[in-house]
Design goal:
By secondary structure, this protein is α+β, with helices and mostly antiparallel strands. The protein has two domains: 35 residues; 180 residues, no CATH class. It has five helices and twelve strands.
């Protein structure tokens, strides 16, 4: 586009401008290829012989692999479920319960957090002395705080906004072999301001991001993680 614009103006871009335009077009093409791996409308097509009962399943594509997803757990971002399970099952006719919270599973093969991630990030912070207030809330669940490293100074940030609270399910292991971690905050006065997130590599180069947009349910993390794994196991690769 830049080359065309310069041509219409009666002049040609210099070598530097042409190189930048080419690099930008290449980056855009790479990005589209990344996104296409998880989109049903481009790239790999589902097997021609596949028959899907769309009342029971949705057909999703992640990293050029096709999966049947139970309709009850299908969601725009990937999959999802409500928590706590017992209250979710007992919701009244209105379908609304102020004490039931959505757990979103953002499933993708792009925009994967770089290493170190998850518990490896906490181990690095421990070695660098950036972890504090680690306590065992109960067997199988730890809570701790750690500071980010300031990009400019290379030292632990002094900003309060760079101190994060993490919950670790110490007696579980995610598919990467690490204790599952959830960055999470509580707000007793307003649970809609609580919530958290985490994630892990699942299979076939696919990352699962766990997002809790609201709810004081941080201490439920081990049980929530178990349900995340159960829901993922209900998918069927085709």
């Amino acid at each position: 586009m830049l080359v065309v614009a310069f041509t219409l103006l009666g002049c040609r871009p210099g070598a530097e401008e042409e190189a930048k335009a080419a690099a930008r077009l290449k980056a855009e093409a790479v990005r589209q290829e990344e996104l296409c791996r998880d989109r049903a409308d481009c790239g790999e097509r589902p097997p021609a012989e596949l028959k899907v009962d769309y009342k029971e399943h949705a057909l999703r594509k992640w990293n050029n692999h096709w999966f049947l997803v139970p309709r009850d757990y299908n969601a725009a971002q990937g999959m999802g479920f409500l928590w706590p399970l017992e209250r979710a099952r007992l919701k009244g006719p209105s379908g609304y319960d102020p004490n039931v919270w959505a757990i979103e599973l953002h499933i993708r093969s792009h925009d994967i957090p770089p290493e170190p991630r998850g518990y490896l990030r906490i181990q690095l912070a421990e070695r660098e002395g950036r972890v504090s207030n680690r306590v065992t809330l109960r067997p199988g669940l730890d809570r701790l705080q750690y500071r980010y490293v300031d990009d400019e100074t290379g030292k632990p940030s002094l900003s309060p906004s760079d101190v994060f609270t993490e919950y670790v399910a110490t007696d579980r292991r995610d598919p990467e072999g690490q204790p599952p971690v959830l960055r999470c905050k509580t707000n007793p006065a307003d649970p809609t301001e609580a919530g958290g997130g985490g994630g892990f590599m699942w299979r076939d180069g696919i990352y699962v991001g766990v997002l809790i947009r609201a709810g004081n349910i941080c201490e439920d993390w081990p049980a929530i993680y178990d349900e995340v794994i159960r829901v993922l196991q209900m998918t069927e690769k085709v």
